[in-house]
Amino acid sequence: MDITPDNEFIKNSNVPGPTKEEVRCLVMCKSQVSKADVVVDVGCGTGGLTLEFAKRAKKVYAIDKNPEALKTTFKNLQKHGLDDGVDLIEADGTEVLDNLPPFDVLMVGGSGGKMDYLLKRGYKKLKSGGRIVVTSILLETPSEATMVMKDLGMEVDVVGVSISKGKISARGTMMVARNPITIVSAKKALKN
Amino acid sequence: MDITPDNEFIKNSNVPGPTKEEVRCLVMCKSQVSKADVVVDVGCGTGGLTLEFAKRAKKVYAIDKNPEALKTTFKNLQKHGLDDGVDLIEADGTEVLDNLPPFDVLMVGGSGGKMDYLLKRGYKKLKSGGRIVVTSILLETPSEATMVMKDLGMEVDVVGVSISKGKISARGTMMVARNPITIVSAKKALKN
Amino acid sequence: MDITPDNEFIKNSNVPGPTKEEVRCLVMCKSQVSKADVVVDVGCGTGGLTLEFAKRAKKVYAIDKNPEALKTTFKNLQKHGLDDGVDLIEADGTEVLDNLPPFDVLMVGGSGGKMDYLLKRGYKKLKSGGRIVVTSILLETPSEATMVMKDLGMEVDVVGVSISKGKISARGTMMVARNPITIVSAKKALKN
Amino acid sequence: MDITPDNEFIKNSNVPGPTKEEVRCLVMCKSQVSKADVVVDVGCGTGGLTLEFAKRAKKVYAIDKNPEALKTTFKNLQKHGLDDGVDLIEADGTEVLDNLPPFDVLMVGGSGGKMDYLLKRGYKKLKSGGRIVVTSILLETPSEATMVMKDLGMEVDVVGVSISKGKISARGTMMVARNPITIVSAKKALKN
Ligand SMILES: Nc1ncnc2c1ncn2[C@@H]1O[C@H](CSCC[C@H](N)C(=O)O)[C@@H](O)[C@H]1O
Ligand SMILES: Nc1ncnc2c1ncn2[C@@H]1O[C@H](CSCC[C@H](N)C(=O)O)[C@@H](O)[C@H]1O
Ligand SMILES: Nc1ncnc2c1ncn2[C@@H]1O[C@H](CSCC[C@H](N)C(=O)O)[C@@H](O)[C@H]1O
Ligand SMILES: Nc1ncnc2c1ncn2[C@@H]1O[C@H](CSCC[C@H](N)C(=O)O)[C@@H](O)[C@H]1O
């Protein structure tokens, strides 16, 4: 299970991300991504999650409404030799989900206040057995995402994650906090 | 990245574990385990980590001084069809490391006050490029493990992890805390 | 600054609380309670916060819709000689706020899905310079309380609190997590 | 319970602190400081804790080995009209504890690797019924402080504190983490 270190990402001051290493690791587990999967990453930002999905999936659609996010994501994919198999789409996620082929994983890293629409629309295109994963640093987003997923009849997994990292110096190991993140995820029932 | 749900483990009231799902996920990332690896899991307990390693490594040596831990670990491996490729060894980790073949990952989930000895001894048998991972719920263990790894000349990664899980009811989503865990890890330099 | 230890409270299995020691301490600070204050504690539960307010305020109105909560709160006040100056009111908070005299602190420890109504009604009876404090273990409540307070034109302080407590044994100090709590508070502007 | 807001402190880039509002609040509770108390604050830094003790105690001795810390502490006390009743001492805490009168509270906010000596020396001068409080952002300090207090026969309270603060914007409430702090405290037994 190889996760790219945080400091190997090219950053852009106008683009949020990359999602920190430990959270990328947890998102990979929650998404249950595997080699046969088609993944849609709405709000790809710096490409932190896109890159991890690119290592593990068959196909990734990375979407962002900010053109600089797509440039940065592309640079990071290219730097790590992972741009093959990733389509970069400059658009609002709400406008483009309908035109994509059915997918196995819907990742939402940014919604711009359109969570309800994104999740409901995405759910329709999600294959049965597929997973939705939402990450957020906002207080409001996790409860909204949870509510929508419950409305869709899904069994929701909500995980609050607080990570601190040791900064080692002569004085000792100072524990530096990362901002808390909430990961909300759910699986679409298998048809029977 | 498939992590076995917490509730799929057989438990034994005399054996700690399994390490919770999210922490197992993070340990898999920190260990960088892959199909070519030999893993030693000192203090296998319920087999939570052993089972995840068994899915991803070539060979796992699971060690515990408590015979009930080995029985429980075996039951869990068997339940998930993963007992092939795992050797179960009833012993104190300090007494058995020397007799094992060189390994790629040393996992320490329990040390019984012998961290210094375990890590120094383990380091000798660790292949170059190999990883050591220590998890602990104790206040004292992370600083001890960090100190020993620093003494061994390793660059140490210390991560404090606080996870809470949503319990969904009619009233809302109650966030239930898991005990905080510290993961200390390091990589043995590649020979040049 | 004297905070009553958690284990000195009489508990009742049908009543939540008491709010843990460290959170009671933080609520006292956020409420800025002082000897001249009238405090309303909606959802007094076991009386954890009521008792701390009773030590520091002029007058406390403790409200709960559960009669067992009021009995438990009374027992705890009596045990600590603090029942003078506390009025216990069995009612839904929404039905009784209007009949109370103006107050300096509105504490909401339980709302039963009526946060919006409670805060808006409470705000009217809150003296200028008065404080509202909401504590919650739910994912949904903090964002709702924040939204209502913002709508009321208040400057809102949101604090996520994760506490772990050391359990000392021969093996070391095991850090045991308390469930995370969010404290949302705000001050009503002084008239000018 | 009035705690000075973080942004009311004068800062100095060469001096750590002030201890954040919520942690100052908790330290006041753990120290059980009251109007009759003599407090010694070793490692006063910016004066964050000194100032809170100055509001609540009879006398505070604020000690720091860094002359800039004492200047900054003095400025903050003066700004808030609290410099009366505080003695500022430029010294290593280990060199000056012996010359102070007996005290009720020993606060250690910085030890410079001399925790063992500071606590043992301080314990001797601590009145019976007095409290020791240690705060730290380091991984190593809490376990060392716990060990020394246990050796001194004290019953130790260890509290891990992770605080995040909401930053409210048009997009929502972003939760920003403060670095985790551990508070170790204990009370000296009353003579009988
Ligand atoms: N409705 C929407 N459609 C497409 N992109 C959106 C969106 N709302 C927000 N975004 C984008 O979501 C991103 C969130 S930041 C995501 C960071 C990313 N997970 C990483 O690891 O690098 C921003 O770049 C923002 O432009
Ligand atoms: N020196 C030592 N050698 C071998 N086992 C040890 C040991 N010290 C402690 N242990 C074992 O370490 C275990 C820690 S509990 C480990 C839980 C495990 N990671 C899981 O996920 O299930 C206990 O079973 C204990 O018996
Ligand atoms: N609308 C409402 N009016 C009055 N009480 C309410 C209410 N909604 C919930 N409650 C009460 O709120 C309480 C929440 S538990 C509060 C615990 C308390 N702070 C302590 O420290 O002990 C419960 O007892 C519940 O009965
Ligand atoms: N042995 C020692 N004696 C005196 N001061 C010390 C010391 N070791 C460290 N310090 C001081 O401890 C301080 C720690 S920072 C303390 C911040 C303070 N509690 C606040 O709220 O502002 C530093 O200023 C450092 O100079």
Automatic annotation (TrEMBL), chains A, B, C, D:
InterPro entries: CbiT (IPR023475), Cbl_synth_MTase_CbiT (IPR014008), Cobalamin_biosynth_MTase (IPR050714), Methyltranfer_dom (IPR025714), SAM-dependent_MTases_sf (IPR029063). S-adenosyl-L-methionine binds at residues 19, 43-47, 64, 93. It is an enzyme of class 2 (transferase). GO terms for biological process: anaerobic cobalamin biosynthetic process; methylation. SUPFAM superfamilies: S-adenosyl-L-methionine-dependent methyltransferases. It holds the Pfam family Methyltransf_31. Residues 35-142 form the Methyltransferase domain. Pathway: Cofactor biosynthesis; adenosylcobalamin biosynthesis; cob(II)yrinate a,c-diamide from sirohydrochlorin (anaerobic route): step 8/10. Keywords: Cobalamin biosynthesis, Methyltransferase, S-adenosyl-L-methionine, Transferase. GO terms for molecular function: cobalt-precorrin-6B C5-methyltransferase activity; protein methyltransferase activity. Its EC number is 2.1.1.196. It catalyses: Co-precorrin-6B + S-adenosyl-L-methionine = Co-precorrin-7 + S-adenosyl-L-homocysteine + CO2. Belongs to the methyltransferase superfamily. Archaeal-type CbiT family. This is Probable cobalt-precorrin-6B C(15)-methyltransferase (decarboxylating).
